Amino acid sequence: MALSSRHLLGLYGVPKEDIQLILDTATTFREVLERPIKKVPTLQGKTIVNLFYENSTRTRISFELAQKRLSADTINFSTSTSSTKKGETFKDTVRNIEAMKVDMIVVRHQSAGVPQFLTRITKANIINAGDGLHEHPTQGLLDMYSIREKFGTLKGLNVCIVGDIAHSRVAMSNIFGLKTMGANVSVCGPTTMIPMGIESLGVKVLHNIDKAIANNDVLNVLRIQLERDAGRRIPSTREYHNYFGITSDRIEKNNKNIVILHPGPINRGVELSSEVADGPYQIILDQVTNGVAIRMAVLYLLGTMVN
Amino acid sequence: MDIKAKIVDEEGLNRTITRLAHEILERNKGSRNIVLIGMRTRGEYIANRIKSKIKEIENYEPDFGILDVTLYRDDFRTRLKQPEVSVTNITFDINEKDVILIDDVLYTGRTVRAALDAIMDLGRPSTIQLCVLVDRGHRELPIKADFVGKNIPTSINEEIRVRLKEIDGEDAIYLVNVPNKN
What percent of chain A lies above the pLDDT cut of 90? Predict the structure, then answer.
């Protein structure tokens, strides 16, 4: 078995078999992460560049750890310390990096489509670590892995994504991936945060958080992204919390079997109460651990692919 | 499958595994410090059978684990197909133990090399001993088995197929012809 594409740009259109293969392969790496020596020699001699044009802690550390645990050589690039400051174009930067013989590029960029563009100008395998408002496929995969770990399957599960759907690449990757795997997906949030026409992706739109909790197995709660101008779509974070915040009261009143996911970083007291963020219903830190295993799986499957 | 000869049948296989179990116990002066590790896929089932034999003989069940060496292979660049990985399942401590590493066929020795690296990453056993059902020769590395079920000298255009009831529906060892690899 091998993946049908040599890049991971998004989960839109990725066949079920590929997603299944990545999730199954991640189980292997989950075991490696439990060992005393959490390192295997599989990608020895491969060079991977982490090209991050946007801030990130979790994703970047997670990718870097995944690469180190597969024994690849890694180079980190960030805009603040590079020649981008001197006016070099993106294309020139990438071509120069490629000339140093790299095998894979992990890219995060504020513009949608940059990973796709990279596939045209380099020969390296490209992994999208988040591009604009487009997709964040490894986050989608690790969410699906975490849900599958909890329920044993994704098929037929009711999953609701809560928050600013219109400005979330995590929401997009979740919707595409979960739909492919046979889950029933809905979204919940204030009207200003739900993109028009999203029903055409086959998701239900909800505006009542109590009903969303009552009628779903899983809530994937997104962060209210104040740096992306979320303040212009809601009157205040306090009002958002009153109408859409997940609290212990709401969970206990509606559905005590609910499982809460959050891609991090959390705004405590906005989308989740602190009690829920640390409570028994969430699997937020499992998601982080699984993230390393998922990224190892993707790096392994792309890095050892026979061209 | 172009079968040249059936070398071992069901009864023969059972006798061979019984003998291997006795040899392992004799060499290690009993079963108390040994752990069995089978290599995916068929080594796993052979190891499991040896475990049952040891239980019959000594009335003690040694720890038993499964090793997947895919991540330690040295042929990622030259293979035609991407190998599928599966999970290593060794839930016990191997430090200071006598590890019996079990596989079906010993050929180039490269899988065993990978397995040795994999085991070292799990701990520091006091010994690692290699037990194989068939040694077919053609070693490419300085590796030798401690316990051998059958020595079957082969030519390079032949292959050994071990078939086991657990996955293949029968117990047998065949010598088969393979078309010239070039």
Answer: 86
